[in-house]
Protein backbone atom coordinates (compact mmCIF):
# COMPACT_ATOMS: atom_id res chain seq x y z
CA UNK A 1 0.00 0.00 0.00
CA UNK A 2 1.19 3.50 -0.73
CA UNK A 3 2.15 5.43 2.36
CA UNK A 4 1.98 9.11 3.31
CA UNK A 5 -0.96 9.85 1.03
CA UNK A 6 -3.14 12.82 1.88
CA UNK A 7 -6.63 11.85 2.99
CA UNK A 8 -9.73 13.91 3.77
CA UNK A 9 -13.06 13.26 5.44
CA UNK A 10 -15.04 14.00 2.29
CA UNK A 11 -17.14 11.01 1.22
CA UNK A 12 -18.27 10.46 -2.35
CA UNK A 13 -21.52 8.56 -2.77
CA UNK A 14 -21.50 5.84 -5.39
CA UNK A 15 -24.52 6.34 -7.69
CA UNK A 16 -27.40 3.94 -7.26
CA UNK A 17 -27.80 1.07 -9.74
CA UNK A 18 -24.27 1.48 -11.11
CA UNK A 19 -21.34 -0.90 -11.21
CA UNK A 20 -17.70 -0.03 -10.71
CA UNK A 21 -15.76 -2.61 -12.71
CA UNK A 22 -12.03 -3.05 -13.15
CA UNK A 23 -9.66 -5.76 -14.32
CA UNK A 24 -6.03 -6.38 -13.37
CA UNK A 25 -3.30 -8.67 -14.55
CA UNK A 26 -1.68 -11.26 -12.30
CA UNK A 27 0.59 -8.59 -10.79
CA UNK A 28 -2.32 -6.35 -9.81
CA UNK A 29 -1.82 -3.76 -12.57
CA UNK A 30 -5.06 -2.26 -13.89
CA UNK A 31 -5.80 -3.26 -17.49
CA UNK A 32 -9.44 -2.14 -17.65
CA UNK A 33 -11.64 0.38 -15.82
CA UNK A 34 -15.19 1.24 -16.75
CA UNK A 35 -16.32 4.90 -16.93
CA UNK A 36 -18.21 4.79 -13.59
CA UNK A 37 -15.12 3.54 -11.75
CA UNK A 38 -13.00 6.21 -13.45
CA UNK A 39 -15.47 8.93 -12.44
CA UNK A 40 -15.86 7.84 -8.82
CA UNK A 41 -12.12 7.29 -8.30
CA UNK A 42 -11.29 10.79 -9.49
CA UNK A 43 -8.46 9.56 -11.70
CA UNK A 44 -8.31 9.75 -15.47
CA UNK A 45 -8.33 6.70 -17.70
CA UNK A 46 -4.64 7.12 -18.58
CA UNK A 47 -3.73 7.48 -14.89
CA UNK A 48 -5.45 4.22 -13.99
CA UNK A 49 -4.42 1.96 -16.87
CA UNK A 50 -1.11 0.31 -16.03
CA UNK A 51 -1.11 1.56 -12.43
CA UNK A 52 -1.15 -0.87 -9.47
CA UNK A 53 -4.64 -1.38 -8.14
CA UNK A 54 -3.56 -0.27 -4.67
CA UNK A 55 -3.59 3.26 -6.06
CA UNK A 56 -7.16 3.38 -4.67
CA UNK A 57 -6.42 1.58 -1.40
CA UNK A 58 -7.36 3.58 1.68
CA UNK A 59 -4.95 3.54 4.67
CA UNK A 60 -7.85 2.89 7.07
CA UNK A 61 -8.39 -0.57 5.58
CA UNK A 62 -6.83 -3.39 7.72
CA UNK A 63 -4.01 -5.25 6.00
CA UNK A 64 -5.51 -8.64 6.93
CA UNK A 65 -8.45 -7.91 4.64
CA UNK A 66 -6.19 -7.81 1.60
CA UNK A 67 -4.16 -10.76 2.82
CA UNK A 68 -7.36 -12.79 2.88
CA UNK A 69 -8.28 -11.41 -0.55
CA UNK A 70 -5.04 -12.52 -2.21
CA UNK A 71 -5.04 -15.85 -0.42
CA UNK A 72 -8.56 -16.50 -1.71
CA UNK A 73 -7.71 -15.47 -5.27
CA UNK A 74 -4.63 -17.71 -5.34
CA UNK A 75 -6.96 -20.64 -4.57
CA UNK A 76 -9.04 -19.66 -7.66
CA UNK A 77 -11.96 -18.64 -5.49
CA UNK A 78 -13.99 -15.45 -5.47
CA UNK A 79 -13.78 -12.96 -2.64
CA UNK A 80 -16.48 -10.56 -1.44
CA UNK A 81 -16.56 -7.84 1.17
CA UNK A 82 -16.99 -4.14 1.96
CA UNK A 83 -14.06 -1.93 1.01
CA UNK A 84 -13.26 1.69 1.69
CA UNK A 85 -11.36 3.13 -1.28
CA UNK A 86 -9.41 6.36 -1.56
CA UNK A 87 -10.09 8.95 -4.28
CA UNK A 88 -7.40 10.91 -6.04
CA UNK A 89 -8.34 14.07 -4.12
CA UNK A 90 -7.94 12.26 -0.77
CA UNK A 91 -11.64 11.62 -0.23
CA UNK A 92 -13.17 8.16 0.06
CA UNK A 93 -16.09 6.00 -1.03
CA UNK A 94 -17.55 2.70 0.25
CA UNK A 95 -18.41 -0.22 -2.04
CA UNK A 96 -19.54 -3.81 -1.89
CA UNK A 97 -16.85 -5.61 -3.84
CA UNK A 98 -16.64 -9.05 -5.37
CA UNK A 99 -13.27 -10.04 -6.79
CA UNK A 100 -13.18 -13.01 -9.15
CA UNK A 101 -10.21 -14.77 -10.82
CA UNK A 102 -10.40 -14.76 -14.62
CA UNK A 103 -9.70 -18.27 -15.88
CA UNK A 104 -8.79 -19.03 -19.49
CA UNK A 105 -7.65 -22.42 -20.74
CA UNK A 106 -7.74 -23.67 -17.17
CA UNK A 107 -5.32 -21.02 -15.91
CA UNK A 108 -5.83 -17.72 -14.11
CA UNK A 109 -4.81 -14.82 -16.36
CA UNK A 110 -6.11 -11.92 -14.28
CA UNK A 111 -8.69 -10.70 -11.81
CA UNK A 112 -11.96 -8.79 -12.12
CA UNK A 113 -13.57 -6.65 -9.46
CA UNK A 114 -17.26 -5.70 -9.55
CA UNK A 115 -18.42 -3.14 -6.99
CA UNK A 116 -21.80 -1.70 -6.08
CA UNK A 117 -22.96 0.93 -3.64
CA UNK A 118 -22.79 -0.07 0.03
CA UNK A 119 -25.76 0.70 2.24
CA UNK A 120 -25.38 2.99 5.32
CA UNK A 121 -26.07 0.15 7.78
CA UNK A 122 -23.42 -2.04 6.14
CA UNK A 123 -20.93 0.82 6.15
CA UNK A 124 -21.53 1.47 9.85
CA UNK A 125 -20.99 -2.21 10.71
CA UNK A 126 -17.86 -2.39 8.53
CA UNK A 127 -16.37 0.75 10.11
CA UNK A 128 -16.87 -0.70 13.59
CA UNK A 129 -15.47 -4.09 12.54
CA UNK A 130 -12.41 -2.66 10.78
CA UNK A 131 -11.67 -0.34 13.68
CA UNK A 132 -11.85 -3.31 16.07
CA UNK A 133 -9.52 -5.35 13.84
CA UNK A 134 -7.06 -2.44 13.67
CA UNK A 135 -7.09 -2.10 17.47
CA UNK A 136 -7.46 -5.68 18.75
CA UNK A 137 -6.94 -8.04 15.84
CA UNK A 138 -9.28 -10.92 14.95
CA UNK A 139 -9.48 -12.39 18.55
CA UNK A 140 -10.85 -15.91 18.03
CA UNK A 141 -12.19 -15.24 14.55
CA UNK A 142 -10.77 -15.72 11.10
CA UNK A 143 -11.32 -14.24 7.67
CA UNK A 144 -12.44 -16.65 5.01
CA UNK A 145 -13.20 -15.37 1.50
CA UNK A 146 -14.02 -11.95 2.90
CA UNK A 147 -16.26 -13.21 5.69
CA UNK A 148 -15.47 -13.09 9.41
CA UNK A 149 -16.01 -16.58 10.86
CA UNK A 150 -15.65 -18.05 14.33
CA UNK A 151 -12.97 -20.69 14.96
CA UNK A 152 -13.41 -24.29 16.21
CA UNK A 153 -16.73 -25.71 17.43
CA UNK A 154 -18.45 -22.35 17.19
CA UNK A 155 -18.02 -22.43 13.41
CA UNK A 156 -19.86 -25.77 13.12
CA UNK A 157 -22.56 -24.56 15.52
CA UNK A 158 -23.12 -21.41 13.54
CA UNK A 159 -23.36 -23.46 10.37
CA UNK A 160 -26.07 -25.63 11.93
CA UNK A 161 -27.95 -22.60 13.18
CA UNK A 162 -28.15 -20.99 9.77
CA UNK A 163 -31.70 -20.77 8.38
CA UNK A 164 -32.76 -23.51 5.99
CA UNK A 165 -32.94 -21.15 3.06
CA UNK A 166 -29.41 -19.81 3.58
CA UNK A 167 -27.18 -22.85 2.94
CA UNK A 168 -27.83 -26.12 1.14
CA UNK A 169 -24.70 -27.63 2.68
CA UNK A 170 -25.98 -26.81 6.18
CA UNK A 171 -29.34 -28.37 5.33
CA UNK A 172 -27.66 -31.60 4.21
CA UNK A 173 -25.53 -31.60 7.36
CA UNK A 174 -28.69 -31.30 9.45
CA UNK A 175 -30.18 -34.23 7.50
CA UNK A 176 -27.14 -36.37 8.37
CA UNK A 177 -27.32 -35.48 12.05
CA UNK A 178 -31.05 -36.18 12.18
CA UNK A 179 -30.47 -39.55 10.47
CA UNK A 180 -27.77 -40.45 13.01
CA UNK A 181 -30.02 -39.35 15.85
CA UNK A 182 -32.84 -41.53 14.47
CA UNK A 183 -30.51 -44.55 14.30
CA UNK A 184 -29.31 -43.94 17.84
CA UNK A 185 -32.91 -43.66 19.04
CA UNK A 186 -33.80 -46.90 17.27
CA UNK A 187 -30.87 -48.69 18.91
CA UNK A 188 -31.97 -47.41 22.26
CA UNK A 189 -35.52 -48.61 21.68
CA UNK A 190 -34.27 -52.05 20.67
CA UNK A 191 -32.15 -52.30 23.76
CA UNK A 192 -34.97 -51.11 25.94
CA UNK A 193 -37.48 -53.53 24.49
CA UNK A 194 -35.70 -56.49 26.02
CA UNK A 195 -34.93 -58.21 22.74
CA UNK A 196 -31.94 -60.51 22.90
CA UNK A 197 -29.91 -62.95 20.98
CA UNK A 198 -30.39 -63.32 17.28
CA UNK A 199 -33.21 -60.78 17.05
CA UNK A 200 -31.20 -58.08 18.75
CA UNK A 201 -28.14 -58.73 16.59
CA UNK A 202 -30.20 -58.77 13.41
CA UNK A 203 -32.01 -55.59 14.37
CA UNK A 204 -28.80 -53.75 15.21
CA UNK A 205 -27.18 -54.99 11.99
CA UNK A 206 -30.18 -53.88 9.97
CA UNK A 207 -30.20 -50.44 11.60
CA UNK A 208 -26.45 -50.13 11.04
CA UNK A 209 -26.73 -51.06 7.39
CA UNK A 210 -29.73 -48.76 6.95
CA UNK A 211 -27.89 -45.93 8.65
CA UNK A 212 -24.76 -46.40 6.55
CA UNK A 213 -26.83 -46.66 3.36
CA UNK A 214 -28.75 -43.54 4.29
CA UNK A 215 -25.55 -41.59 5.05
CA UNK A 216 -23.88 -42.85 1.85
CA UNK A 217 -26.89 -41.94 -0.22
CA UNK A 218 -27.03 -38.52 1.42
CA UNK A 219 -23.32 -38.01 0.75
CA UNK A 220 -23.74 -39.07 -2.91
CA UNK A 221 -26.74 -36.81 -3.35
CA UNK A 222 -24.82 -33.98 -1.72
CA UNK A 223 -21.86 -34.41 -4.03
CA UNK A 224 -24.07 -34.71 -7.12
CA UNK A 225 -25.92 -31.58 -6.17
CA UNK A 226 -23.09 -29.45 -4.81
CA UNK A 227 -20.44 -30.08 -7.47
CA UNK A 228 -22.63 -28.95 -10.45
CA UNK A 229 -23.87 -26.01 -8.40
CA UNK A 230 -20.29 -25.03 -7.58
CA UNK A 231 -19.38 -25.30 -11.25
CA UNK A 232 -22.46 -23.32 -12.27
CA UNK A 233 -21.61 -20.65 -9.70
CA UNK A 234 -18.06 -20.32 -10.99
CA UNK A 235 -19.25 -20.25 -14.60
CA UNK A 236 -21.81 -17.56 -13.76
CA UNK A 237 -19.05 -15.57 -12.05
CA UNK A 238 -16.84 -15.86 -15.14
CA UNK A 239 -19.69 -14.69 -17.38
CA UNK A 240 -20.52 -11.89 -14.92
CA UNK A 241 -16.94 -10.61 -15.16
CA UNK A 242 -17.05 -10.67 -18.95
CA UNK A 243 -15.30 -13.94 -19.76
CA UNK A 244 -17.60 -15.10 -22.57
CA UNK A 245 -15.11 -17.57 -24.03
CA UNK A 246 -15.57 -20.14 -21.30
CA UNK A 247 -16.96 -23.51 -22.47
CA UNK A 248 -19.60 -25.21 -20.39
CA UNK A 249 -18.80 -28.89 -19.90
CA UNK A 250 -21.82 -30.65 -18.33
CA UNK A 251 -20.62 -34.23 -19.04
CA UNK A 252 -19.71 -34.71 -15.40
CA UNK A 253 -23.39 -34.59 -14.38
CA UNK A 254 -26.15 -36.99 -15.30
CA UNK A 255 -28.91 -34.84 -13.88
CA UNK A 256 -31.34 -33.71 -16.54
CA UNK A 257 -32.24 -30.60 -14.52
CA UNK A 258 -28.57 -29.57 -14.12
CA UNK A 259 -27.94 -30.31 -17.80
CA UNK A 260 -30.80 -27.96 -18.71
CA UNK A 261 -29.30 -25.33 -16.41
CA UNK A 262 -25.96 -25.66 -18.19
CA UNK A 263 -27.68 -25.61 -21.57
CA UNK A 264 -29.50 -22.33 -20.88
CA UNK A 265 -26.40 -20.80 -19.29
CA UNK A 266 -24.49 -21.68 -22.45
CA UNK A 267 -27.27 -20.18 -24.57
CA UNK A 268 -27.04 -17.02 -22.47
CA UNK A 269 -23.25 -16.97 -22.90
CA UNK A 270 -23.50 -17.42 -26.66
CA UNK A 271 -26.19 -14.75 -26.92
CA UNK A 272 -24.06 -12.33 -24.94
CA UNK A 273 -21.01 -13.27 -27.01
CA UNK A 274 -22.87 -12.66 -30.28
CA UNK A 275 -24.32 -9.41 -28.97
CA UNK A 276 -20.95 -8.25 -27.68
CA UNK A 277 -19.25 -9.02 -30.99
CA UNK A 278 -21.99 -7.24 -32.94
CA UNK A 279 -21.74 -4.23 -30.62
CA UNK A 280 -17.96 -4.27 -30.89
CA UNK A 281 -18.14 -4.37 -34.69
CA UNK A 282 -20.73 -1.59 -34.68
CA UNK A 283 -18.60 0.51 -32.35
CA UNK A 284 -15.52 -0.09 -34.48
CA UNK A 285 -17.48 0.86 -37.60
CA UNK A 286 -18.75 3.98 -35.82
CA UNK A 287 -15.21 4.82 -34.75
CA UNK A 288 -13.96 4.35 -38.31
CA UNK A 289 -16.74 6.54 -39.68
CA UNK A 290 -16.17 9.10 -36.93
CA UNK A 291 -12.46 9.11 -37.74
CA UNK A 292 -13.18 9.60 -41.43
CA UNK A 293 -15.69 12.34 -40.68
CA UNK A 294 -13.25 13.96 -38.25
CA UNK A 295 -10.43 13.81 -40.81
CA UNK A 296 -12.71 15.13 -43.55
CA UNK A 297 -14.04 17.83 -41.24
CA UNK A 298 -10.48 18.76 -40.26
CA UNK A 299 -9.53 19.08 -43.93
CA UNK A 300 -12.74 21.00 -44.61
CA UNK A 301 -11.97 23.28 -41.68
CA UNK A 302 -8.46 23.92 -42.96
CA UNK A 303 -9.71 24.54 -46.50
CA UNK A 304 -12.50 26.75 -45.23
CA UNK A 305 -10.00 28.73 -43.16
CA UNK A 306 -7.74 29.07 -46.21
CA UNK A 307 -10.74 30.06 -48.34
CA UNK A 308 -11.80 32.56 -45.69
CA UNK A 309 -8.31 34.06 -45.71
CA UNK A 310 -8.33 34.23 -49.51
CA UNK A 311 -11.77 35.83 -49.50
CA UNK A 312 -10.66 38.34 -46.92
CA UNK A 313 -7.64 39.22 -49.02
CA UNK A 314 -9.86 39.32 -52.12
CA UNK A 315 -12.32 41.56 -50.30
CA UNK A 316 -9.49 43.87 -49.27
CA UNK A 317 -8.17 43.94 -52.86
CA UNK A 318 -11.68 44.47 -54.23
CA UNK A 319 -12.21 47.30 -51.80
CA UNK A 320 -8.93 48.89 -52.88
CA UNK A 321 -9.82 48.33 -56.54
CA UNK A 322 -13.26 49.83 -55.93
CA UNK A 323 -11.64 52.87 -54.37
CA UNK A 324 -9.28 53.18 -57.35
CA UNK A 325 -12.12 52.80 -59.85
CA UNK A 326 -14.19 55.30 -57.88
CA UNK A 327 -11.27 57.70 -57.89
CA UNK A 328 -10.87 57.12 -61.64
CA UNK A 329 -14.57 57.82 -62.10
CA UNK A 330 -14.22 61.00 -60.05
CA UNK A 331 -11.19 62.03 -62.10
CA UNK A 332 -13.04 61.21 -65.32
CA UNK A 333 -15.99 63.26 -64.11
CA UNK A 334 -13.65 66.14 -63.26
CA UNK A 335 -11.86 65.76 -66.63
CA UNK A 336 -15.24 65.81 -68.35
CA UNK A 337 -16.08 69.02 -66.56
CA UNK A 338 -12.69 70.48 -67.52
CA UNK A 339 -13.20 69.33 -71.13
CA UNK A 340 -16.60 71.03 -71.19
CA UNK A 341 -14.95 74.17 -69.84
CA UNK A 342 -12.16 73.83 -72.42
CA UNK A 343 -14.74 73.39 -75.17
CA UNK A 344 -16.55 76.51 -73.99
CA UNK A 345 -13.25 78.41 -73.80
CA UNK A 346 -12.26 77.16 -77.27
CA UNK A 347 -15.61 78.26 -78.61
CA UNK A 348 -15.16 81.69 -77.07
CA UNK A 349 -11.60 81.76 -78.48
CA UNK A 350 -12.95 80.86 -81.92
CA UNK A 351 -15.48 83.61 -81.64
CA UNK A 352 -12.72 86.07 -80.61
CA UNK A 353 -10.58 84.91 -83.55
CA UNK A 354 -13.54 85.37 -85.86
CA UNK A 355 -14.06 88.82 -84.39
CA UNK A 356 -10.33 89.53 -84.87
CA UNK A 357 -10.48 88.36 -88.48
CA UNK A 358 -13.49 90.55 -89.04
CA UNK A 359 -11.74 93.47 -87.36
CA UNK A 360 -8.62 92.88 -89.44
CA UNK A 361 -10.78 92.91 -92.52
CA UNK A 362 -12.36 96.16 -91.39
CA UNK A 363 -8.88 97.61 -90.72
CA UNK A 364 -7.78 96.42 -94.17
CA UNK A 365 -10.76 98.12 -95.73
CA UNK A 366 -10.05 101.30 -93.75
CA UNK A 367 -6.40 101.18 -94.81
CA UNK A 368 -7.41 100.95 -98.43
CA UNK A 369 -9.60 104.03 -97.94
CA UNK A 370 -6.63 105.80 -96.27
CA UNK A 371 -4.53 104.88 -99.35
CA UNK A 372 -7.14 106.42 -101.54
CA UNK A 373 -7.14 109.58 -99.38
CA UNK A 374 -3.33 109.67 -99.45
CA UNK A 375 -3.45 109.44 -103.24
CA UNK A 376 -5.81 112.40 -103.26
CA UNK A 377 -3.50 114.28 -100.91
CA UNK A 378 -0.53 113.49 -103.20
CA UNK A 379 -2.49 114.78 -106.19
CA UNK A 380 -3.38 117.93 -104.33
CA UNK A 381 0.24 118.44 -103.26
CA UNK A 382 1.43 117.92 -106.84
CA UNK A 383 -1.08 120.41 -108.16
CA UNK A 384 -0.21 122.82 -105.33
CA UNK A 385 3.46 122.48 -106.22
CA UNK A 386 2.64 123.17 -109.92
CA UNK A 387 0.58 126.15 -108.90
CA UNK A 388 3.40 127.38 -106.64
CA UNK A 389 5.85 127.02 -109.52
CA UNK A 390 3.50 128.93 -111.77
CA UNK A 391 3.09 131.60 -109.10
CA UNK A 392 6.87 131.90 -108.73
CA UNK A 393 7.25 132.32 -112.47
CA UNK A 394 4.58 134.93 -112.52
CA UNK A 395 6.06 136.75 -109.51
CA UNK A 396 9.42 136.82 -111.26
CA UNK A 397 7.84 138.46 -114.26
CA UNK A 398 6.20 140.98 -111.98
CA UNK A 399 9.51 142.17 -110.67
CA UNK A 400 9.58 144.06 -107.44
CA UNK A 401 5.87 143.99 -107.12
CA UNK A 402 5.81 140.31 -107.14
CA UNK A 403 8.60 139.65 -104.63
CA UNK A 404 6.19 139.21 -101.70
CA UNK A 405 4.03 136.92 -103.72
CA UNK A 406 7.11 134.97 -104.75
CA UNK A 407 7.97 134.43 -101.09
CA UNK A 408 4.47 133.14 -100.42
CA UNK A 409 4.58 130.99 -103.48
CA UNK A 410 7.89 129.56 -102.24
CA UNK A 411 6.41 128.75 -98.88
CA UNK A 412 3.41 127.15 -100.53
CA UNK A 413 5.67 125.10 -102.77
CA UNK A 414 7.70 124.08 -99.72
CA UNK A 415 4.51 123.00 -97.91
CA UNK A 416 3.34 121.22 -101.00
CA UNK A 417 6.61 119.33 -101.18
CA UNK A 418 6.41 118.46 -97.46
CA UNK A 419 2.81 117.38 -97.93
CA UNK A 420 3.82 115.24 -100.88
CA UNK A 421 6.70 113.84 -98.88
CA UNK A 422 4.40 113.14 -95.87
CA UNK A 423 1.78 111.67 -98.17
CA UNK A 424 4.46 109.39 -99.61
CA UNK A 425 5.54 108.27 -96.20
CA UNK A 426 1.92 107.75 -95.23
CA UNK A 427 1.42 105.76 -98.39
CA UNK A 428 4.45 103.65 -97.61
CA UNK A 429 3.17 103.09 -94.07
CA UNK A 430 -0.29 102.30 -95.33
CA UNK A 431 1.11 99.85 -97.91
CA UNK A 432 3.28 98.24 -95.22
CA UNK A 433 0.27 98.12 -92.89
CA UNK A 434 -1.78 96.58 -95.65
CA UNK A 435 0.88 93.92 -96.14
CA UNK A 436 1.01 93.25 -92.42
CA UNK A 437 -2.74 93.31 -92.19
CA UNK A 438 -2.94 90.85 -95.04
CA UNK A 439 -0.42 88.62 -93.25
CA UNK A 440 -2.32 89.07 -89.96
CA UNK A 441 -5.61 88.31 -91.67
CA UNK A 442 -4.08 85.18 -93.16
CA UNK A 443 -2.75 84.14 -89.75
CA UNK A 444 -6.07 85.02 -88.14
CA UNK A 445 -7.86 82.87 -90.70
CA UNK A 446 -5.45 80.01 -89.99
CA UNK A 447 -5.98 80.60 -86.27
CA UNK A 448 -9.70 80.38 -86.85
CA UNK A 449 -9.28 77.11 -88.74
CA UNK A 450 -6.99 75.83 -85.96
CA UNK A 451 -9.51 76.88 -83.34
CA UNK A 452 -12.19 75.00 -85.26
CA UNK A 453 -9.96 71.90 -85.22
CA UNK A 454 -9.24 72.44 -81.51
CA UNK A 455 -12.95 72.76 -80.83
CA UNK A 456 -13.60 69.55 -82.75
CA UNK A 457 -10.78 67.75 -80.86
CA UNK A 458 -11.98 69.09 -77.54
CA UNK A 459 -15.48 67.96 -78.43
CA UNK A 460 -14.17 64.49 -79.29
CA UNK A 461 -12.12 64.37 -76.07
CA UNK A 462 -15.16 65.51 -74.11
CA UNK A 463 -17.22 62.72 -75.65
CA UNK A 464 -14.54 60.13 -74.89
CA UNK A 465 -14.13 61.39 -71.33
CA UNK A 466 -17.91 61.27 -70.91
CA UNK A 467 -17.89 57.64 -72.09
CA UNK A 468 -14.96 56.89 -69.74
CA UNK A 469 -16.83 58.52 -66.88
CA UNK A 470 -19.97 56.47 -67.65
CA UNK A 471 -17.92 53.24 -67.91
CA UNK A 472 -16.08 54.08 -64.66
CA UNK A 473 -19.37 54.61 -62.88
CA UNK A 474 -20.67 51.30 -64.23
CA UNK A 475 -17.43 49.60 -63.14
CA UNK A 476 -17.68 51.17 -59.70
CA UNK A 477 -21.28 49.94 -59.43
CA UNK A 478 -20.29 46.45 -60.62
CA UNK A 479 -17.31 46.33 -58.25
CA UNK A 480 -19.55 47.42 -55.40
CA UNK A 481 -21.87 44.49 -56.20
CA UNK A 482 -18.87 42.13 -56.46
CA UNK A 483 -17.58 43.49 -53.17
CA UNK A 484 -20.97 42.84 -51.56
CA UNK A 485 -20.96 39.32 -53.02
CA UNK A 486 -17.43 38.69 -51.74
CA UNK A 487 -18.46 40.00 -48.31
CA UNK A 488 -21.47 37.67 -48.37
CA UNK A 489 -19.21 34.78 -49.41
CA UNK A 490 -16.79 35.67 -46.62
CA UNK A 491 -19.66 35.74 -44.12
CA UNK A 492 -20.98 32.42 -45.46
CA UNK A 493 -17.47 30.97 -45.31
CA UNK A 494 -17.12 32.08 -41.69
CA UNK A 495 -20.50 30.50 -40.95
CA UNK A 496 -19.31 27.31 -42.65
CA UNK A 497 -16.12 27.44 -40.58
CA UNK A 498 -18.22 27.77 -37.41
CA UNK A 499 -20.41 24.88 -38.54
CA UNK A 500 -17.29 22.84 -39.33
CA UNK A 501 -15.90 23.58 -35.87
CA UNK A 502 -19.22 22.66 -34.25
CA UNK A 503 -19.36 19.50 -36.35
CA UNK A 504 -15.79 18.74 -35.31
CA UNK A 505 -16.74 19.14 -31.64
CA UNK A 506 -19.81 16.93 -32.16
CA UNK A 507 -17.84 14.27 -34.02
CA UNK A 508 -15.11 14.40 -31.38
CA UNK A 509 -17.72 13.96 -28.65
CA UNK A 510 -19.31 11.12 -30.63
CA UNK A 511 -15.88 9.52 -31.06
CA UNK A 512 -15.18 9.97 -27.34
CA UNK A 513 -18.49 8.35 -26.40
CA UNK A 514 -17.87 5.53 -28.87
CA UNK A 515 -14.40 5.08 -27.39
CA UNK A 516 -15.90 4.94 -23.90
CA UNK A 517 -18.45 2.42 -25.15
CA UNK A 518 -15.61 0.46 -26.71
CA UNK A 519 -13.78 0.50 -23.40
CA UNK A 520 -16.96 -0.66 -21.68
CA UNK A 521 -17.52 -3.50 -24.14
CA UNK A 522 -13.90 -4.56 -23.67
CA UNK A 523 -15.07 -5.91 -20.33
CA UNK A 524 -16.49 -8.80 -22.34
CA UNK A 525 -13.80 -11.18 -23.56
CA UNK A 526 -14.87 -12.00 -27.13
CA UNK A 527 -11.53 -13.05 -28.62
CA UNK A 528 -11.65 -15.55 -31.47
CA UNK A 529 -8.66 -17.58 -30.26
CA UNK A 530 -8.05 -19.60 -27.16
CA UNK A 531 -11.49 -20.66 -25.93
CA UNK A 532 -11.64 -21.09 -22.17
CA UNK A 533 -12.62 -24.31 -20.40
CA UNK A 534 -13.29 -23.89 -16.71
CA UNK A 535 -12.28 -26.69 -14.35
CA UNK A 536 -13.48 -25.65 -10.88
CA UNK A 537 -12.03 -26.81 -7.62
CA UNK A 538 -14.48 -29.47 -6.38
CA UNK A 539 -13.59 -28.62 -2.77
CA UNK A 540 -14.24 -24.89 -3.22
CA UNK A 541 -16.88 -23.41 -0.96
CA UNK A 542 -18.85 -21.05 -3.18
CA UNK A 543 -22.28 -20.83 -1.65
CA UNK A 544 -23.65 -17.25 -1.44
CA UNK A 545 -22.63 -15.65 1.86
CA UNK A 546 -23.42 -12.26 3.41
CA UNK A 547 -20.72 -9.64 3.11
CA UNK A 548 -18.55 -9.32 6.22
CA UNK A 549 -21.05 -10.79 8.60
CA UNK A 550 -19.72 -12.46 11.73
CA UNK A 551 -20.53 -16.16 11.50
UniProtKB/TrEMBL annotation:
The keyword Membrane applies. One of its GO terms (molecular function) is transmembrane signaling receptor activity. Keywords: Membrane, Methylation, Transducer, Transmembrane, Transmembrane helix. Residues 528-551 are annotated as: Disordered. Residues 223-277 form the HAMP domain. Its main location: membrane. It is found in: Membrane. Residues 282-511 form the Methyl-accepting transducer domain. The keyword Transmembrane helix applies. Residues 25-50 form the PAS domain. Belongs to the methyl-accepting chemotaxis (MCP) protein family. This is Methyl-accepting chemotaxis protein. It comes from Alcaligenes faecalis.
Amino acid sequence: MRENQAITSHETQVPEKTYLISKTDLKGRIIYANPVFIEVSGYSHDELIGAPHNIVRHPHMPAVIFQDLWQTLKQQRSWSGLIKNRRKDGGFYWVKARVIPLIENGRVNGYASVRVRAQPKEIKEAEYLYHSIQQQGLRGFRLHEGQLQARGWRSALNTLLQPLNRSLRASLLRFGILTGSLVTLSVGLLLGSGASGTYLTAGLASLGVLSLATLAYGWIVTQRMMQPLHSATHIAQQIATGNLLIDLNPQHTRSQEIAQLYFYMDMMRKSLLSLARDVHQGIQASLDVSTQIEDGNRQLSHRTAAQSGSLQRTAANMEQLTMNVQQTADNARLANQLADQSLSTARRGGEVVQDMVSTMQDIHNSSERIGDIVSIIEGLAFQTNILALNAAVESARAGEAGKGFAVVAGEVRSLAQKSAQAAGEIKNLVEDSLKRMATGAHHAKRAGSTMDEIMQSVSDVTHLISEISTASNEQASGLAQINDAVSTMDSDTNDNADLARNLGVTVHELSRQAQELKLSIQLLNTGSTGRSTYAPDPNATQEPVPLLKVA
